[in-house]
Amino acid sequence: MAGVKLIDVVKRYPNGFQAVNSINLEIYDKEFVVLVGPSGCAKSTALRMVAGLEEITDGQILIGDRVVNDVAAKDRNIAMVFQSYALYPHMDVYTNMAFALKLMKFPKEEVDRRVRRAADILGIEELLDRKPKRLSGGQRQRVAVGRAIVREPEVFLFDEPLSNLDAKLRVTMRAELTTLQHQLETTMIYVTHDQVEAMTMGDRIVIMKEGHIMQVGTPLEVYNFPDNKFVAGFIGSPAMNFFSAKLVQVDGGLIIDSGSFQVKVPKESHGIYGGYKDKEVTFGIRPEDIVDTLPQDARGQWEKLNAVVRLIEPLGAEIILEMESGQQRFVARVDPHSKSRLNEEAQVYFNMRKMQLFDAKTEQVIPRP
């Protein structure tokens, strides 16, 4: 197995459009890394450059200790699973999985060993004599993964492989792929636009925007300590609430004034945020850090305000409330036994020790203590 390293990698097309902007990334041996971001952020382009399906304009790509800039895709010892299953319809499952090995002139006994080992790992032994048209979507996806496994590559690449599956099967398959990675102990790079997939599957997440890497970290790192407003808004569902505000000093304390409401900054944060006194900031707080009933063991600093409930979305285990305070709208994620009623005023509480402040101009986070 091997790690992957991208050093100052640029992708520029003949028309002058620069899709990838000098990215640097190191993926360690046996690590599961997820590239995530909105459509058009160049995450698939970055993956295809690692695969050798896209030429790079500048920089270096290393697989293990070998620079592969000029190495053909077939010689990089990688295996890629695409969004479309791309199975040969006239071949049965066994032949689909064995086809690449036969082209590489592997002995018949070795081909059989690898195909049956992969089928055993994926639990598709009974499907080996079936044609793709007799398989479900999940079974076809397993065959596509099996076709990659038989090559025993140094690195597995996945380009949104679950996007064609229904919601329930996607949950099952993402658990299976995570288990598979642990079982094979191999390096995997996975591309998705779904931040839930990224959070649940990756050892580390690489969040991209417009060809730039915005942050790299573990799921909890990027969730709890986002580097910037984009990452804070992209990771988490529902998304973080943002309010344009001003930091003002009142009676020796700091107040976040949104124009529609005011909340106090915790005392331990005064030193960090003091330099932004009388400046424009963006105040961010996640829906799960807003409650309409304080827990009995509530600790920390909670700030109360009144807001009108404009939308209620009961989800069983929780309720999503869309609320309005003056000109400001925000979303709260509350207990399923909430007593809040549509178009009525309710009291809500912000957990200020979980808040985030961002520089209004640069959108970079102002680190909290």
Walkthrough of the structure:
24% of the residues lie in helices and 34% in strands. It contains nine helices and 21 strands. The protein has helices at 43-51, 93-103, 108-122, 137-149, 167-184, 195-201, 219-224, 229-234, 270-273; strands spanning 4-12, 18-27, 32-36, 58-63, 66-67, 78-81, 155-159, 187-192, 204-209, 212-217, 241-250, 253-257, 262-264, 280-285, 290-291, 302-314, 319-325, 328-334, 345-351, 356-359, 365-366. The longest helix has 18 residues, at 167-184. The protein is elongated, with a radius of gyration of 25 Å. The mean pLDDT is 91.
Give a concise summary.
By secondary structure, this protein is of the alpha+beta class. The chain has helices at 43-51, 93-103, 108-122, 137-149, 167-184, 195-201, 219-224, 229-234, 270-273; strands spanning 4-12, 18-27, 32-36, 58-63, 66-67, 78-81, 155-159, 187-192, 204-209, 212-217, 241-250, 253-257, 262-264, 280-285, 290-291, 302-314, 319-325, 328-334, 345-351, 356-359, 365-366. A hairpin with a 5-residue loop joins strand 20 and strand 21 (365-366).
Task: Reconstruct the topology from this structure.
Elements: E1 4-12, E2 18-27, E3 32-36, H1 43-51, E4 58-63, E5 66-67, E6 78-81, H2 93-103, H3 108-122, H4 137-149, E7 155-159, H5 167-184, E8 187-192, H6 195-201, E9 204-209, E10 212-217, H7 219-224, H8 229-234, E11 241-250, E12 253-257, E13 262-264, H9 270-273, E14 280-285, E15 290-291, E16 302-314, E17 319-325, E18 328-334, E19 345-351, E20 356-359, E21 365-366
Parallel strand pairs: 3-8, 3-9, 6-7, 7-8
Antiparallel strand pairs: 1-2, 1-4, 4-5, 9-10, 11-12, 11-14, 12-13, 14-20, 15-19, 16-17, 16-19, 17-18, 20-21
Helix pairs in contact: 2-3, 2-4, 3-4
